[in-house]
Amino acid sequence: MSARGTVEYTSIGEIRGPLLIVEGVSKAAYDELVEIETGTGEKRLGRIIEVGLGKAVVQVFEGTTDLSLTTTKVKFLGKTLEFPVSLELLGRVFDGLGRPLDGLPDPIGVESRDVNGAAINPYMRDYPTDFIQTGVSVIDGMLTLVRGQKLPLFSGAGLPHNMLAAQIARQATVRGGEEFAVVFAAIGVRHDEAIFFRRSLEESGAIKRSILFLNLADDPAIERIVTPRVALTAAEYLAFEQDMHVLVILTDMTNYAEALREISSAREEVPGRKGYPGYLYTDLATIYERAGRIRGKKGSITQLPILSMPSDDITHPVPDLTGYITEGQVVLDRDLHRKGIYPPVNVLMSLSRLMKDGIGEGKTRSDHAEVSNQLYDAYARAQELRALVEIVGKAGLSPIDLKYLEFGDVFERKFLSQGPYENRDLEKTFELAWEVLSVLPEHELTKIKTHHIKRYYKRRG
Length: 461
Fold this sequence. Notes:
Mean pLDDT: 91
Structural class: alpha/beta
Low-confidence stretches: none
Number of domains: 3
CATH architecture of the largest domain: 3-Layer(aba) Sandwich
CATH topology of the largest domain: Rossmann fold
Helix content: 25-40%
Strand content: 15-25%
Distance between the termini: 72 Å
Shape: elongated
């Protein structure tokens, strides 16, 4: 939207939750930035979310507490919310609206960009085919992340998704030494979580190639609508103007959806499933579809959204709709967490749909796909046998069944489990995978070609 100068109004008709209804409006546009001045001179920001019939509905980012119908002034600024972008953003910490939290001056951008952005044109999309190393064996080996992919992490209350997110942010690299950056957006997190994310990046030195946006739980919920969009605006500049490969971590998208539901309720819209607005799918897509690669551009944006599932319900609207938009999911498991396994990834419920295009000779290793398939096959059989043991006991199992039970334990203890500060390179991941597979007799490795077995299989005893 082009700037047209400011227009000021004092005709506030109603204050409803986080919304202001301004009357007598003649010039206004959807998504226009608004400055609200209280009777005490305090200034807050907002944006127009609905306009028509001489009225404008303004969403106030800092909340409507202490606003008065008689003393509040509203100034329509004639432009959308923008964020200044430049390479100086790297190493900085901002709040959810893009204001500095690190004591340094406001960023000086080469240009200011509309934070609302747009999804990548499908015609211009380039297919993701390049491997990203996270240093986490279960992801690199079995749920491979590919440049330009959207791979969400489904978690639950009390599970270590924040620890895993911080670990990936510290360790993620692309092969070949190309420019790599991390944009980390924490949405509605507690103070201790924000301190953990910040300290984790600072102490590891990863903050130098990172941009951190922190929207805290006690910040107004409406701010959460903007946080992922500001983060993606910065990511798009780094990726498509500076040719960098950018990993965007968004945690927690469930908090984002709750803020969206709050606004929808205040606007008295007809609720959809579990009270979420009917346009939740479309709204989430406006965020997720800003990831990818553009034909002719060297850089890429890879997204790792994190969602906490209420009551561990994977059919809840937020993970359910996210699964339709994204290319797979990594699911954390409470039973594995109780067993002390970190990261507690339920590999049988997890999937990376683009994995096949990012692995193999010249990208990872020629045996990657076969090893991954064999691990899946053997662990699935181990889980079936564990359920059977609950009924008939181990006495009713054959010797080969007992080997698969042993495989399940060794797989979880050696391959799946690793320390939150342990960074495993790809060779270490494959070494552990073959060590675990060597628990099984050679003739059971039906998913792997003979020449790979001869080269890597470690005969026991």
